[in-house]
Design goal:
Length: about 180
């Protein structure tokens, strides 16, 4: 059986060294699941700088903490996937991103400043969907990954890349 050395040595992750005989996919899952926990214990889970006098900027409070459901992707109306219309949610306290591409769920991280955004969908489940839903999901995840700015308009959010709108969303109330 092929063995490999995982570059996470010293993080205290059991079973991820060369003596581990589990399949690579299981090792990868263990690492993906453990990294946020290790980061949290090391004080690395706060990506945004501390906020003065306990107040967050208003723009962050408006964007974070609510579910954003896809309305249009690259100018085309969103369709319901296997389980739902694609959506994402940015946690207020941990800078964690989660959501659904319509077929599969994902978890990841985000960085948000006054008008810049960086979304990293990270790990994703691998369920089957219709070819159309799978195609929309792949495009949705790609758009989340390459978006670099946003614009708020009422209860709507537009993600932009290179100054062009690549996706529009409708926001549900605070979760």
């Amino acid at each position: 059986m092929e063995r490999d050395v995982v570059p996470w040595k010293g993080l205290g992750l059991r079973g991820t060294d060369a003596s581990d005989t589990r399949p690579k996919s299981m090792k990868l899952w263990m690492i993906l699941a453990a990294v946020p926990m290790v980061a949290a214990t090391q004080g690395l889970n706060r990506v945004l700088p501390p906020v003065q006098q306990g107040k967050r900027p208003v723009i962050n409070e408006t964007v974070r903490g609510r579910q954003w459901s896809l309305v249009a992707l690259m100018g085309k109306p969103a369709m319901k996937g296997r389980t739902s219309v694609p959506y994402f949610y940015m946690d207020l306290n941990t800078n964690r991103l989660n959501g659904s591409g319509g077929v599969n769920r994902f978890v990841g991280t985000y960085v948000l400043t006054s008008n810049h955004i960086k979304l990293n969908p990270g790990a994703m489940t691998k369920m089957a969907g219709t070819p159309e839903a799978n195609q929309q999901e792949m495009a949705f995840v790609a758009v989340l990954s390459r978006a670099n700015s946003f614009k708020l308009q009422g209860n709507g959010l537009s993600l932009m890349s290179g100054g062009k709108t690549v996706a529009t969303f409708s926001g549900a109330g605070k979760l």
